[in-house]
Amino acid sequence: MNNRKSTDTTLPQGEGGLGAPVRHPIPWQEPSFYDEDELDIELRRVFDICHGCRRCFNLCDSFPRLFDLIDESESGELDTVDSKDFKQVVDACTLCDMCFMTKCPYVPPHQFDLDFPHLMLRYRAVENAQKKIPYTQRQISKTDRNGRVMSYLSLAVNWTFQLDNKFIRTLIEFLSGVDRRAILPKFYHKTFNSRSKSFGSIVNKSAPAYGRKAVLYSTCFVNFNNPNMGELTQKVLAHNGVITQAVYPNCCGMPQLEQGNIEKVADNAMKVAKEMRKWIDDGYDIIALTPSCSLMLKYEWPLILAGNEDVIRLSKATFDITEYIVNISRNEGLTDGLQALSGGIALHLACHSRAQNMGKKASEMLNLIPDGNIKVIERCSGHGGTWGVYKNNFETALKVGRPVVRQAGEMPFISSECPLAADHILQGIEFQKKRNAENIEDLKLLPKRTYHPLELFAMSYGLFNNNANDKG
């Protein structure tokens, strides 16, 4: 069913060819991958092609930084740009994959063979090997350890992270570099995996899809930061006849991938794939509840561990949650009972959903709700995983996200597949309205929260309680 990207190389094609983009396995275990001279040669080759094209100028801040470096150089060409200045280009990349997936005419199988995001990853892998990744960033990326500790101390942590704790947030900013204005995720004392053990919804045996079985790979975010989302997923799937089991061996490794720690990503991939093998053998589908994580399982892991049979099988068995709901609707059919929602929905399609090459599955799912008024937004929110919370990036993240904010701000429901992007969009709307507000009454119109598309789908089924289990 899934339209997976191939990792096979094919014959070169000319610019504008109709061949589907392909990606090569990442040769991270080869010594030449970390050779600085070879890396510089490849950076200059790719950057020179980008300089002559410039189609990606408005995607993120990497490309404006690159083009400014070239335009302001002595010759106006790449040959007079110092290699040490390339770091600012790399640092602005969020690994969203949108240049590769939506803009670049020179991706493989074109003979220019450009993969800008994976070149940025290689640069960071060299930095990681040289231990140049800042200590605080390395600690923040340890999501499983941090999640366990902060969930245990959730009441104190959530109070500390509040934006109105200005002194503490300023101290956190000084110590970690995390901007004091950035919304940080809430932690829950009872994780999704622990809640799922007492899951009480009865599977609907009269549902057309009864007999399906699915493992919910809860991901670190849903497990520690949004267990309500996991519970709603179980309710919606049970209502549609799907037996579910929550399984979370460990993080997918996206936070480590952002820092070039490919070895750690590979280690996580092998552990998760080995655990999931027995479930796949028993006929379970695998559903990842966060787009970045489904992207890792489907595409990044097979490129990092090419030839690993467990990883390949897991890749083929994995669905994004909205993709899975649409798959049920197309094959067996959904349980009746979806009701119209009052008001329109601004739906932000996460970059890491778009990068899965599966179509607009969140939009397709929400359009199953009667009388839907869906405004689809296909632009980057600017957040970029953990990238947007840092002081050096926060203002840029807001700037990149302004087109999304402008489109989303007037709709009753604001929805994003990415939980971090959702908070960032909400914060962007608040900042914009405060700039433009003429009186205090205008600020009362600020939206109170955002929704994952699955939450709106559950609301349409009457399964969503806005205040349920919201304690940290």
What characteristics describe this protein?
alpha/beta, 4-stranded parallel β-sheet, 3-stranded parallel β-sheet, 24 helices, 7 strands, 48% helix, globular
What this model shows, in words?
With 472 residues, the protein is α/β, with parallel strands linked by helices. Among the domains are: 31-129; 345-460. The protein is built from 24 helices and 7 strands. The strands form 2 sheets. A 4-stranded parallel sheet has the order 2-1-3-4, sandwiched between helices. A 3-stranded parallel sheet has the order 6-5-7. Helix 1 (36-53) runs antiparallel to helix 5, helix 7 (143-152) packs parallel to helix 11 (219-225) and helix 11 packs across helix 12. The longest helix has 20 residues, at 262-281. The model is unreliable at 1-14 (pLDDT under 50).
Condensed summary:
The protein has 472 residues and is of the alpha/beta class. The chain has 24 helices and seven strands.
Q: What is the count of helical runs?
A: 24
Percent helix: 40-55%
Number of strands: 7
Main pleated sheet:
4 strands, parallel
Q: What value does the Rg take, in angstroms?
A: 22 Å
Oligomer: single chain
The chain-level structural class is alpha/beta
> What is the first-to-last residue Cα distance?
38 Å
- What low-confidence regions span 5 or more consecutive residues with pLDDT below 50? 1-14
Share of residues in strands: 5-15%
Any idea what the shape is?
Answer: globular
Summarize model confidence as the mean pLDDT. 89
